[in-house]
Fold each of these.
Amino acid sequence: MSEFIVRLHGDKSITHRAFIFAALASGESIIRNVGSGEDLASTRQVLRQMGVSIEALSNDTWRVQGLGGIHNFHRSQETLDCGNSGTTMRLLAGLFSGLKHRVTLDGDASLRRRPMRRLARVLEPFGRTVDCAEHGSAPIQVGGDLSQKTDELSNHQNIRILTASGSAQLKSAALLAALSDHRPVQIIEDAQSRDHSERMLGALWSTSLIKSELTLEIPASKPSFTAFDFFSPGDLSSASFWVAVAVLADSKYSSIKLEEVNLNPSRMGLIKLAQQMGVQINIQHKAEVLGEPIGSILIEALDLNQSLKPIQPSAQEVLDALDELPLLALLACFADGRTEIRHAQELRVKESDRLEAMGQALASLGAQIETLTDGWVINGNPNLVFQATDELNSYGDHRIAMCLLIAQLKCIKGTKLKINDLECIAVSYPEFPQQLVAYSR
Ligand code: S3P
């Protein structure tokens, strides 16, 4: 029995932010361990269209020539193409709302279905407008409001933004918009979302922006910051797929070790819930990089007679595991009893309607699952074996496609599941299918 070691590409959320802050910094930044996923390519491409020079030094290391502030970004008449990436669109809309001219951001068919009007709500207190297409979606336009509105707004002492819905993308959009405003800004959440933007900017400014669990404060004077050399810590969302693999696969390996992984508490949701289900996971903290904790995670395979315990996660636990909830649903199918996952209505407006997508797929594989408006109820069975079925629909959603690849591990020997559009995995974790084959061999 031995250990399977996985080296993960840098965290996608953190790496998006590293490119954005490197573009804003003065001087030349180096970003290492960058994943080859398409979402990050979208962020690089949009920044390039705005005049930022970004070049590859190797397949996972990039050099960014920072422009030293938003005022040095170029005027772009071209539409800025965010591809499939909601993070690219929402974060950069916040940043570009501070441009002197208006720009248009657009995306693929999936991104065009996602809600963007909520951006208008968080940028409005800055006096900035967001024009959306019909139904409040992309293409959207931002920028060009500053010159008309600054005088009008300068009497106001400070800005207070309530992000609502626990969205890190909205919180980060507000934080990036604050960089081009001369007033102190307070951002208040109703539930704590991932905090990478405030950690990274705080580290670059050598000050903490985090005032309490739910409140951020950005000072009136915004110091410029210098370029940095950054190793992006391994992606916790990608790490989470390995928790499911360790638990569900029949393998010669007794454990899976993930090295140099991000250990940000706001992203550890699936790890903590898996521990509640009885999975043995050991975490070792090693260092800190630009405000982010980094270390290793060791996941033990289940003992022969052990079964997973069902769970009832709280609203905050659900938010902490947001992108990993499809995986949690998969695990819950094999728990010994009833798992109820609620407060997850946001899953309906991700890259696909993830509640429907997983509900449909797991039911057709033979799981006892009911899809609710805001979650699932799953009656787990430790002895469940997935049955052959018609082609499963990933809805072109990378996280659904990877969950379905893992579901294959619980099928009757010799059954090969048909899953459509597996190529979409390239959005976040292109190496996963090969790594999974290496593990299962
Ligand atoms: C992200 C925030 C989350 C998450 C997304 C990445 C980020 O989205 O689901 O995959 O990098 O800020 P919301 O802010 O829409 O919840």
Amino acid sequence: MPERLLVVGQPTARMLDRLSGAFELVRLDDLNGSGAGIRHACMLGHTRIDASLFDRLPDLRVFANYGVGYDTIDAAEAARRGVIVTHTPDVLNAEVATTALMLMMACYRELLRDEAYVRSGRWEHEGGAPLTRSVDGQTVGILGMGRIGQEIARKLSVFDAEIVYHTRSEKDVPFRYFADLVDMAREVDCLMVITPGGAATRHLVNRAVLEALGPGGTLINVARGTVVDEAALIDCLETGKLGWAGLDVFEAEPHVPERLRALGNVVLLPHVGSATVQTRQAMGDLVVDNLLDHLAHGTVRTPVPECRDIA
Ligand code: NDP
């Protein structure tokens, strides 16, 4: 009899193929009381995972997350109970960085406005579109200089960007460090947000940061919606206190406030930072590798920092 694997969300066909050879899959909705004996679980999506689920799974050892961010999982509580949470770092760095640059370019070059202009037929009767802003030679502030932040910086070098950054502790990178986020926002043309989500970063980008970025400034958020004070962001965009915003994530996604959707100075994406066939395949492979390695040898490849001591 294969061991049971608890599945939260919908695995890809490729994941199902590999997993069903080794486990009997049990959906969270079908877990009727008897979670005892289940040692492995995986999640796709952003369901809140905390003590209430761990209570139902007394033998759980590995909780494998499809994604690098795990702000909806109480990893400290998992570690306390001997549950190793794993995630999918690095394999998505390039994709998320590309998404950040795509949003920046779409904002600067008014991609959506100009595309709509052609489709509307107005070009033929009204002449050329208004000029836009060059992406080249900008000062870009990166909030979060980790795996993805560094990849964003690398990709921006093609555009001759001057990179500066803010994190809690200074990193060994060849960019100017700002200990204060408002000070950094005042000096940059574009602010890229790529920190983890969760309580520690909630509303880090507040009204003061947005106003320091200013009417000529652009905010790009590919981190988590909670990092930005969305009400303040909408106010600033409506009143011209902030110029533009490119957003992949939202505070209460998939709900996106009507006022935000009505604005012309935003580019909005449905949380697709890593969502290409190639990158999602690599993420799925790493989730399955973590589970199969643990099943076969009791080891995992990519535990989250909170669980490294017990992995
Ligand atoms: P890393 O852990 O490698 O980097 C995180 C960076 O954020 C570090 O430089 C860290 O530095 C900084 N940071 C953490 N907390 C704070 C804080 N309170 N204030 C300032 N800086 C902070 O993570 P990754 O680069 O791999 O991923 C970052 C995040 O990107 C993920 O957690 C996820 O939320 C998001 N993401 C979004 C995706 C999307 O689809 N839009 C896809 C993939 C990831 P320090 O600790 O010194 O502060």
